[in-house]
Design goal:
The structure holds 2 protein chains of 2 kinds. Chain A is mainly α. Chain A has 8 helices and no strands. Chain A has one domain: de novo design (two linked rop proteins) (Up-down Bundle), CATH 1.20.1440. In chain A, helix 5 crosses helix 6 (157-165) and helix 5 (127-149) packs antiparallel against helix 7. The longest helix of chain A is centred in the N-terminal third of the chain and has 31 residues, at 6-36. The longest helix of chain B is centred in the first third of the chain and has 48 residues, at 2-49. Classes of the chains: A mainly alpha, B alpha+beta.
């Protein structure tokens, strides 16, 4: 049956990893600028809602005691390398895919914690962070569906193919739910843009 | 053998096609549904926007100066923890002293959620207002902004201390700070601000028209000479 192709997954990992890496890198640079000059306004602080300055200076922005984007700077390049290898036709071992599965799973869990914090605790959106949310969700879906389709992950065999076939429907549904939550959380703000 | 193989290949291709179409169908269906929902929300939002933009000041807004003739009303949307508001505060005090009772000066809440005590400080001002001490608390909060602002810990106790210094009933003050009605009032003011197009603090209105802080004096003079 039809599952996510290596070609598509390769592109998802390459492009997603690059976007995520660039976003994380910019956040680190902005964080340094903010540390040097506390009155510095980051390039993405547009107004009280769209503002990475206020998000970056919260305790949640350093969940493990150091700025979160350092994780992205270190780890997104791994994903890019995997994507490029897949595009180049390299057959990666099963343990590599399991590793990528574990990594993207941890990433997606962490990103959802950050989403909850951003939407319901901090009350502001940081555009670069949202790039990371989106690529992490897409890369996790792609990797998981690929691993289900290729039998890397344990899954009921009868459901394997039908689920793996939904390789665009699942991430799109996921992102639409996220969009709805963002829309609801900041509705009074979006209204003013109408 | 050969025809059979082509047949098998065709079946696989067909299955593949069907698979793609199911996935794509669901995907497109969801996107279309989302667009429809969004469009509906926009239409309803617009209809909701048909309710007129609120006046910059409401009858129950906090006035820290009141004009005898009521011709000129200055409204400031502020956040007690915002550094720019703290920087504007001495100028506002001078302005109020200069114009005396020829202008009405209204202060409205617009807490910026990224400031840890933005809401707490607004609650403190509102709790003081319940004991008729909005202006003293407003002064107290700005005079001491550097002492309590910009830090992560909750400043409720600091504000209760201020209330005590101002001679307020501190137990009532403590209860009022936690009163959901106080929070609702603060949020309602901020909602008014959002509807008026306030995007940051401080934002000033002179007779309902927004002005930059630098242009405030000129705007007031103009309105007074009219």
């Amino acid at each position: 049956m039809n599952t996510i192709s290596d070609r598509l997954l390769g592109w998802i990992l390459t492009v997603g990893g690059l976007l995520g890496g660039v976003a994380a890198f910019v956040l680190v640079v902005e964080k340094i600028a903010l540390l040097r000059d506390p009155s510095y306004t980051p390039s993405c602080s547009i107004n009280p809602i769209l503002s990475c300055g206020s998000v970056m200076s919260t305790p949640q922005a350093a969940a493990f005691g150091f700025p979160n984007p350092l994780l992205g700077v270190a780890l997104f390049p791994l994903v890019v390398a995997t994507g490029v290898a897949v595009l180049g036709g390299v057959r990666l071992p099963r343990w590599w895919w399991l590793g990528l599965q574990a990594g993207t799973l941890l990433g997606v869990v962490f990103v959802h914690w950050l989403i909850v914090q951003s939407l319901y605790r901090i009350g502001a959106l940081c555009p670069y962070c949202m790039v990371v949310w989106i690529v992490t969700i897409v890369m996790f879906s792609g990797t998981t569906l690929r691993n289900i389709g290729h039998g890397v992950l344990p899954f009921p065999d009868a459901w394997r193919a039908p689920v793996a076939a939904l390789h665009t429907a699942i991430p799109v549904a996921w992102l639409l739910v996220l969009t709805a939550l963002i829309g609801q959380a900041f509705w009074t703000y979006w209204r003013t843009l109408l | 053998m050969n025809p059979q193989r082509t047949k098998a290949r065709k079946a696989v291709a067909k299955a593949r096609q069907q698979g793609i179409s199911t996935n794509l169908k669901i995907t497109i269906g969801m996107v279309v549904a989302a667009v429809v929902v969004l469009a509906t929300a926009l239409v309803i939002g617009r209809a909701g926007d048909g309710t007129p933009v609120p006046a910059a000041a409401r009858d129950d807004s906090h006035r820290i100066s009141t004009a005898a003739d009521g011709r000129v009303t200055v409204v400031e949307f502020l956040d007690f923890e915002c550094a720019a508001c703290g920087a504007a505060y001495p100028g506002v005090e001078r302005l109020r002293a200069d114009y005396g009772n020829s202008i009405t000066y209204v202060v409205r809440y617009f807490p910026i959620a990224s400031h840890p005590n933005a809401y707490t400080s607004a609650h403190a001002a509102e709790a003081a207002a319940r004991q008729g001490a909005f202006e003293p608390m407003y002064r107290k909060l700005f005079d001491n902004q550097r002492a309590w602002g910009g830090q992560r810990q909750d400043r409720t106790e600091t504000f209760i201390g201020y209330a005590r210094e101002l001679g307020l009933d501190s137990e009532k003050f403590r209860a009022d700070m936690a009163d959901p009605a106080v929070d609702a009032r603060v949020r309602a003011e901020a909602d008014d601000g959002v509807r008026l197009g306030v995007q940051g603090t401080p934002t000033f209105f002179v007779n309902g028209v927004e002005y930059e802080p630098d242009a405030l004096k000129q705007a007031i003079d103009q309105a007074l000479s009219r």
